[in-house]
Amino acid sequence: MKHRLNTDKNNFAFTLVELLVVIAIIAILAALLLAAISQAKGKALRIQCANNVRQLGIGLQGFMAENDIYPAYVNPVYSNGTFQGLASWRSDLQNELYANSLVRRKDLSPGHYPAEGIWHCPSAYRPANFPNLPFALGYEDYGYNSYGMSEQTDTSSLGLGGHYIWNASQYPLPAVNVSEVVAPSEMIAIGDGLEGNGGIIRDGLQILWRTYGVQDYLGSTKRSYARHKGKANVVFCDGHVESPPLPFLFADTSDAALSRWNRDHQPHREKLSP
Asked: Residue 64 — left, alpha, or beta (φ > 0 → left; ψ -120 to 50 → alpha)?
């Protein structure tokens, strides 16, 4: 290696090319370090989200054990005691978790649309251009499998939210009995708030649903894939947590993929289109 003599005959100076090589090496090492930090942060957020889902699953198990039913997606007659539970599945789980001191109060948001504590997925975010929509259309982090593979015109539901989810005169009640879920370890209960089909995904929902007619909303498909690197955190009816790939949830048409949505453990492939 040739060095140019400095004014001090005992010192040597690097050439410009050598300095550029050193700078390039430092830049490459810095990029590798940032990538490693980013991956570690992403993994930590996924673990935190999975823990949130696990806590929600604990609340669900507690409610099921006490009432022998699944929470109704909406329970408009809760105040007269006709059916067990509060106004919604969120209210039921939040009440169960707090009443049994399973989580600290500060980890439960008092709002109807919680976005704090265990209700907040640390990898989810409300887009800046997401409008302030009416009450029932707020941005949600986690969703409940209240519909299953039901068509949007059905009067019944194959999910957990109730028997007449689409019938306004009967509401979604009566609630689903625990014994009606044929394969609890294979039935999706709660997870990242997404709906989708055929590769299109909509996020920010308090439902977890596979249905036809889903449209991308403000880049929701890309945002959903970025949340957990193409996966979703889901707790099943028996309480265990998985992170299935989004294509398995919303594009795969195999019996194994479709039956996980329905309490009768059947694929109901006929409901993938109108």
From this structure: alpha
Alpha-carbon span 272 to 251, nearest angstrom: 10
Contacting residues for 270 by C-beta, under 8 A, at least 6 apart: none
The pLDDT tens digits of the residues spanning 107-129 come to 554 444 456 788 889 999 888 87
CA atoms within 13 A on the CB side of 1: 7
Identity at 9, one-letter amino acid code: K
The predicted pLDDT at position 36 comes to: 61
Taking the CA atoms of 170, 173, 174 and 176 in sequence, report the sign of the dihedral they define. Answer: positive
Query: 138 falls in which pLDDT band (50, 70, 90)?
Result: low
Structure tokens belonging to residue 106? 């500060």
Please say whether the beta carbons of 164 and 158 come within 8 A: no
3-state secondary structure of 137: helix
CB 262 within 8 A of CB 188: no
User: pTM (2 decimals)?
Assistant: 0.81
Helix-strand-coil percent breakdown of the chain, rounded to 5?
40, 10, 50
